[in-house]
Design brief:
The chain has 8 helices and 20 strands. By secondary structure, it is an alpha+beta fold. The protein has 2 domains: 225 residues, Rossmann fold (3-Layer(aba) Sandwich); 117 residues, Nucleic acid-binding proteins (OB fold (Dihydrolipoamide Acetyltransferase, E2P)), CATH 2.40.50.140. The strands form 4 sheets. The chain has a 6-stranded mixed beta sheet with strand order 6-7-8-3-9-10, sandwiched between helices. It has a 5-stranded antiparallel beta sheet with strand order 13-12-11-14-20. A hairpin with a 4-residue loop joins strand 17 and strand 18. Helix 2 runs parallel beside helix 4 and helix 3 packs across helix 4. The two termini are 42 Å apart.
């Protein structure tokens, strides 16, 4: 039995459809993320799961039971918001105990439950601290502890790292995944940050314009996207527009806008004469030689150092700027060097050109 299921869920506000025929299944004890740009409908979907909005159509089930007609406080789900909503007039222990008191827990048992949940989030003995005495990361863990002490079937997290600085966000991505595994509770995580979704999740649903484009593991989304939107939104990608000149089995020869012809792998039903885009990850590009796709000429525009994420920017003769993952190639080139770039065809994807692209 899945901890959470959505079946054909739709939400309309007047003539506007915010969520369109969404279905998902979240197995017990998993970390499931919904990833999409602002305005795609992901927060509306979460609010329906929490009970703050009512679907226009479809069903939502927790542990196999429909919760459509249950009020938010009757659903065994809890929610962590971006701004955490901790009570500043209460100390840490009182914040965590608040929900227990509201549900009528025996007063004598509350301190022990607070102590145990603080141990599990790695903050033992902080019951008497004031909220303003905590760091940003500690506040995140207290917000989670306040929910987890109530033993929810599903914990909903709505962009909880959005207010943190970059370094703390990177640290908390790992912490959240470890906490989820420690509690063995299902986490449903909403984010527009693809790095957060890829690092933490067992499964990710990519949402666009109210619907799901693809659901899969982070690796499947990255290596085998099913649409140009997913290919462009999940991870970094170079996008080369052109027109299919010839189809060769699972590959196609594409004449690029601005000149040049290359081979790439077909990922949809695009055919000869179609306007398409080729998506190539920076790590798939190589400087020099020909990896089977045909090579494109250009000049090194600049070298961007960022540790393991360093990039070589190449301005192609077509005018397109592409990113090449540095690897061991930076020592071989300098700014303004004339170079060629190529890739293996099976490390690229061709999709029909997106509207407006």
């Amino acid at each position: 039995m899945n901890d959470l299921s959505c079946v054909g869920v739709t939400k309309k506000f007047g003539d506007f459809t915010a969520v369109r025929n969404v279905s998902l299944e979240v197995p017990p004890g998993s970390f499931f993320s919904i990833l999409g740009p602002s305005g795609c409908g992901k927060t509306t979907l979460m609010r329906m799961i929490a009970g703050f909005e009512t679907p226009s159509a479809g069903d939502i089930r927790i542990k196999g039971e429909s919760v459509i007609n249950l009020a938010p406080n009757k659903r065994n789900v809890k929610m962590v918001f971006q701004h955490l909503a901790l009570f500043p007039m209460m100390n840490v222990g009182e914040n965590i105990a608040y929900g227990l008191r509201c549900q009528g827990e025996q007063k004598s048992e509350i301190p022990e439950k607070v102590r145990k949940v603080l141990d599990r989030v790695g903050l033992p003995g902080v019951e008497d601290k004031r909220i303003e005495q905590l760091s940003g990361g500690q506040k995140q863990r207290i917000a989670i502890a306040r929910c987890m002490v109530l033993q929810p079937d599903v914990l909903l997290l709505d962009e909880p790292l959005g207010a943190l600085d970059l370094k703390l966000r990177e640290h908390m991505k790992i912490e959240l995944k470890q906490l989820q595994e420690r509690f063995e509770t299902t986490f449903l995580y909403i984010t527009h940050d693809q790095s957060e979704a890829l690092v933490m999740s067992d499964q990710v649903a990519v949402m666009n314009a109210g619907g799901f484009e693809q659901i899969g593991s982070p690796r499947a989304l990255y290596d085998d996207p099913v649409s140009g939107f997913v290919a462009g939104f999940v991870g970094d990608a170079n996008v080369l527009p052109g027109t299919i000149d010839e189809v060769r089995g699972g590959e196609a020869r594409v004449i690029l806008d601005g000149g040049g012809a290359v081979l790439a792998r077909l990922a949809d039903d695009s055919n000869t004469g179609d306007r398409v885009e080729i998506f190539v990850r920076p790590e798939a590009l190589r400087i020099g030689g020909d990896n089977g796709s045909g090579s494109l000429s250009g000049k090194v525009d600049s070298l961007l150092f960022n540790g393991a994420a360093s990039r070589i920017l190449v301005r192609l003769d077509t005018g397109q700027l592409v990113e090449v993952a540095d690897g061991d190639q930076a020592s071989e080139v300098s700014a303004h060097d004339a170079v060629t770039v190529s890739w293996q065809p099976d490390r690229s994807r061709i999709f029909v050109r997106r509207p407006g692209a």
